[in-house]
């Protein structure tokens, strides 16, 4: 390895995160409505990756807000809307979902992010599946 690469890696580890470790990543979400005939598999991007976190030894001396850990979260996102096939006329067939444009390491905002990792897999279809590539 070149000395420049080693120094860059050490600098990134010492002074925060390295940008390539928290980035938009391809992800498939499954969406279905009880009234609709199909489940829709949507290919999108989410923020995923590693962020440097420092855990303090003096937890009892610090405010709770000072103890939050950095997570890989949205820096910039947009919303797209997909049409779920097989919905009756009285049901809205539209589903809006976020698309990560860029990501950052920061505090998790529960307004638009799920900050807890589920242990149970809930991203699946119970109805016939249609694929949506937007």
From TrEMBL:
Looking up CDD domains in the UniProt record yields: GHB_like (cd00069)
The protein's UniProt keywords, in alphabetical order, are: Disulfide bond, Glycoprotein, Hormone, Secreted, Signal
Q: Which protein family is named in the record?
A: Belongs to the glycoprotein hormones subunit beta family.
Q: Which residues does the UniProt record annotate as the domain Glycoprotein hormone subunit beta? A: 21-125
Q: What is its main location?
A: secreted
Write out the coiled-coil annotation as residue ranges.
none
Q: Which domain of life is it from?
A: Eukaryota
Q: Which SMART domains match?
A: GHB
| One GO term describing the cellular component | cytoplasm
Give the encoding gene's name: Tshb
Cellular location(s): Secreted
Q: Does the keyword Glycoprotein belong to this entry?
A: yes
Q: Name one GO molecular function term.
A: hormone activity
Look up the signal peptide feature and give its range: 1-16
One Gene Ontology biological process:
G protein-coupled receptor signaling pathway
**Protein name listed in UniProt:** Thyrotropin subunit beta
State the organism named in the record.
Answer: Vidua macroura (Pin-tailed whydah)
SUBUNIT field: Heterodimer of a common alpha chain and a unique beta chain which confers biological specificity to thyrotropin, lutropin, follitropin and gonadotropin.
Instruction: Extract the SUPFAM superfamilies matched here.
Output: Cystine-knot cytokines (SSF57501)
- Per the UniProt record, one Pfam family is Cys_knot
PANTHER family, per the entry: GLYCOPROTEIN HORMONE BETA CHAIN, THYROTROPIN SUBUNIT BETA
Q: Which PROSITE patterns match?
A: GLYCO_HORMONE_BETA_1, GLYCO_HORMONE_BETA_2
